[in-house]
Design a protein that fits this description.
Blueprint: E1 10-15, H1 34-45, E2 69-71, E3 78-84, H2 109-112, E4 119-121, H3 131-137, E5 142-144, E6 151-153, E7 158-159, E8 163-165, E9 170-173, E10 177-178, E11 184-186, E12 191-194, H4 197-200, H5 203-206, E13 214-216, E14 221-224, E15 238-240, E16 245-248, E17 262-264, E18 269-272, E19 285-287, E20 292-296, E21 307-309, E22 314-316, E23 331-333, E24 340-341, E25 365-370, E26 373-379, E27 382-386, E28 389-393, E29 402-404, E30 409-413, E31 426-428, E32 433-437, E33 450-452, E34 457-461, E35 474-476, E36 481-485, E37 505-507, E38 514-517, E39 526-529, H6 538-563, H7 565-569
Parallel strand pairs: 4-5, 5-8, 6-9, 7-10, 8-11, 9-12, 11-13, 12-14, 13-15, 14-16, 15-17, 16-18, 17-19, 18-20, 19-21, 20-22, 21-23, 23-29, 24-30, 29-31, 30-32, 31-33, 32-34, 33-35, 34-36, 36-37
Antiparallel strand pairs: 1-3, 2-3, 25-26, 27-28, 38-39
């Protein structure tokens, strides 16, 4: 996942709200506070500014007119500082290159003296975070320090803010402790290590109270078990523990999270069966890919589920028919397991996959009311395999409809009803034991962008109707038993030959084998002619004709010599 800061990201945006006043636009008719002017000039002296972002900051102008500075319209105090990390010079195109950004080892000292700050946001910057910094931010209700290169140790730190967003930095040490005030905590993509117990099991600090709704500690180096301290965090709606080194089984207390709708445990070393206690939750997005879970796919998953990502585990058994009752399901990924049996005929009942219109954006976004305002704190993010690639879906997740059952032991034919899922964008049934012919109804799936049926036992001709799928950008039918000619004059010939290899009786562009009619010109049957000339029926007959001609010619010459007296006497 790309975590590099955008060149247009803010390197330092500090929103200060006075306790008695609302922030507003700058009143240019009055001079700004002399105290603020001097504080900002001291800040300018303490940092490096290679691209001249702060060139307008001088005593010749009112500080409310400085670039990136906004003042309160009533008391003329500085309330908003926005210093973007970009320049008008076109040379700065490398996202990793921050040489033109404002940098400095320490934040300005005046910031630590502020008592009325309600929100602090810093993006795309670099600075050190000593203990006094964490003491300071514990007084700030809304703290957003994402996509920086902040160096600090969170061990034994108490985070008291309501909103704590510290993802994509260089933070290390063990997980911090949380106060009951914390509602949103994002510490993902750092270098935090150790157990998750310091964060979850300090019940004395909670004193029986918790307001936490969102927890993301993914993409760190956390280890150990999931602990059994979840009963104190019943307010949780979203939990993301993915991309760590966590081991063990899912603890029973996790089933007490009655408000939980989004659970991400992917890319860990968890094992055992999915416990039935989780049916007490209201999980809509369930991501456990890349673990060692065993047993059957649960048949108790809520009917309102939207995403099931179970790939790369050790699930066995058959596909439960209860999945067909999940009318809102738009991601079904059970690839790379040992699931057997047939594909259920009832999958056509999943109405979300029959819908060609895009679902509402809020379906993958958590809405949380805070301070009498509505905030969208996060968007769901998933890694999906489609078009032969592993792609990250975030803002575009609501636009994806996917079924991936590849790399299992599925057998039988594809049920005809499956081809009525006209909303599908990606279908992968590769590396199974599926048989039968592809019906013309495959042409109904006009929204398909990726189709992979490779390494199965499909037979018959490739239907002409497949060429009607105009959005198809990825196709893999390799290593089956398809026969006949690839439909000509269609986009199917625009794919590389690798999409069709491993079908010995398949011919026509883009393959090198050419086709010829097996009988008269009116016949539709075709047989392949290999351009190398050693595996088709054409060349054996060619050799027979050549040999017959040679024998006839030799006998003709011999008889002429035998009957001609002059030549015979010679």
């Amino acid at each position: 996942m790309d975590t590099s800061s955008s060149p247009y990201a803010l390197i330092f945006a500090c929103l200060l709200r006075a306790m008695m006043f609302d922030a507003g636009t700058c009143n240019f008719n009055n001079r700004c506070s002399e105290k603020d002017t001097q504080a900002l000039l001291n800040f300018k002296k303490g940092i490096m500014d290679p691209s001249g972002v702060l060139s307008s900051w001088s005593t010749q102008h009112n500080c409310c007119e400085w670039k990136g500075v906004t003042c309160d319209r009533i008391n003329n105090r500085v309330t908003h500082l926005s210093l973007p990390c970009f320049t008008t010079t076109l040379n700065y195109i490398d996202k990793e290159d921050k040489s033109h950004c404002l940098t400095g080892p320490h934040l300005p000292a005046w910031l630590y003296t502020q008592r009325s700050i309600q929100s602090l946001s810093i993006y795309g910057s670099w600075f050190q975070a000593p203990d006094k910094f964490w003491n300071f931010v514990s007084r700030v209700p809304e703290l957003t320090l994402e996509d920086n290169s902040i160096v600090g140790n969170l061990s034994n730190i108490l985070l008291n803010s309501t909103v704590i967003r510290l993802s994509s930095n260089r933070l290390k040490g063990s997980l911090p402790r949380l106060s009951p005030n914390a509602a949103v905590v994002s510490l993902s993509n750092n270098s935090l290590s150790g157990s998750i117990s310091p964060l979850l099991c300090d019940h004395k600090m909670l004193n029986g109270k918790s307001n936490l709704v969102y927890l993301d500690i993914s993409l760190n180096h956390l280890s150990g078990g999931l602990t059994n301290c979840w009963e104190k965090w019943k307010s949780l709606i979203h939990v993301n523990l993915g991309g760590n080194n966590l081991t063990g089984k899912i603890p029973p207390s996790m089933g007490l999270l009655s408000n939980l709708t989004s659970l991400h445990l992917h890319e860990n070393k968890l094992y055992g069966e999915i416990p039935p206690s989780l049916q007490n939750c209201h999980i809509l997005i369930f991501n456990v890919r890349g673990n060692n879970f065993t047993g059957n796919i649960p048949n108790w998953i809520p009917h309102a589920a939207k995403v099931l990502e179970f790939r790369s585990n050790h699930f066995s058994g058959s596909i439960p028919a209860q999945i067909c009752q999940m009318s809102s399901l738009f991601i079904l990924d059970i690839a790379d397991n040992t699931i057997s049996g047939h594909i259920p005929t009832c999958l056509c009942n999943i109405t979300a996959l029959n819908n060609v219109s895009h679902r509402e954006f809020s379906s993958t976004t958590l809405q949380y009311n805070f301070l009498n305002r509505t905030f969208y704190f996060f968007e769901e993010s998933l890694e999906l395999v489609t078009k032969g690639l592993v792609l990250e879906y975030e803002n575009n997740l609501p636009f994806m409809n996917l079924i991936d059952m590849s790399s299992n032991n599925l057998s039988g034919t594809i049920p005809l009803q499956m081809f009525s899922l006209i909303g599908l964008a990606s279908l992968n049934l590769s590396h199974n034991k599926l048989t039968g012919k592809l019906p013309d109804e495959i042409g109904n799936m006009k929204n398909l962008e990726s189709l992979d049926f490779s390494v199965n036992q499909f037979s018959g001709e490739i239907p002409e109707a497949l060429s009607k799928v105009s959005f198809l950008g990825f196709l893999n039918l390799s290593f089956n038993n398809f026969t006949g000619k690839i439909p000509s004059g269609t986009q199917l010939q625009g794919f590389d030959a690798i999409s069709y290899i491993g079908n010995s009786d398949l011919c026509g562009p883009p393959l090198t084998k050419i086709c010829f009619k097996s009988s008269d010109d009116k016949s539709k049957d075709t047989k392949p002619i290999d351009e190398d000339g050693d595996k088709s029926e054409f060349f054996p007959w060619f050799h027979i004709g050549l040999e017959s001609g040679f024998v006839a010619g030799f006998l003709g010459v011999f008889c002429s010599i035998l009957l001609n007296r002059k030549w015979r006497e010679a």
